[in-house]
Here is the input.
Amino acid sequence: MSFSTPLIQLTDKGLYCEAGQFYIDPSRAVETAVVTHAHSDHARRGAKQYICAKTGVGLLKVRLGKNINVQGVPYGQKIRIGKVEVSLHPAGHILGSAQVRIEHEGEVWVASGDYKRDADPSCEPFEVVKCDTFITEATFGTPKYTWDKNLKHGLAIYEWWQDNAAEGYNSVVFGYSLGKAQRILSELAPYASKPILIYETIRDLTECYREEGRAIAPTVELRDRVALEEWAIQGDLILAPPSALDGNLRIKLGKYRTAFASGWMGGSTWHRQDSYDHGFVMSDHADWNDLNQTIRETGASRVFVQHRNGALVRHLRKSGIDAYSDEDLRLDNYQHLGGTNLSLF
Here is the structure.
């Protein structure tokens, strides 16, 4: 297989497929953007046309504006863009998250976007996609990040909430407004006996999940509830993005304990000891074991790693897989690979 021209190259605007004349998760304004999911570091304003998974259209409109030109494509459906065939496949990251499969003249590349393989009732489960070249994320790409697959997150959060309430405390769980918040609400759906109070930035995004048929625990917007003078927050669970609560709102919460739900809680005790009363190891990204398992199962002969790439690249090379940083997808760097099997060194 030739190393002279990559089907997907890295540019200053992001990943670019020249044969299809589109970008994947571009960082700047472009003609056509294929968007893996609606998080702000992947979905940005300025594209003339957006393409995303069908179940992610609502989220993309909440984030970028209801009048954007967006085409929602069902998972697995092949569409022709320029000279290539493109299909989107579940990434398991958040609702509507997708891996991008691109086929051209018998060669298949897959750009993973962000993904996870843990069970998550709020979104579509991850699907392994066979390919020749795999571009993988590696947010947690070091061996110290491994998740306990047997944890019952909803039950753990519910029991912590109930224990706090019994001691006269409200409970504040911090989680990102898109994805993490809805996963928490979905995990809590079988347990919550009263509405969960949510921060304003979570509301509209959560409605998108409900509209797509996801089971979500009952919610009330936090500011609406505290605005009622005759009502006092007592033994409640509040869900908010990190650092979202201002001083005035914190005063109204009375006595409360805090927790943070994140994969980062699995690799460091600093957050637990100095910033929060409790930590829930709940990640929306693949851990070290799942990254390696996924790469093996794709059957890819070459792998390019985004984000935390050093440890994973070295590990893959020792395993006999040609692995590189995503910086090697820049045209000048890619042409210097020359077909050398770096796993021999």
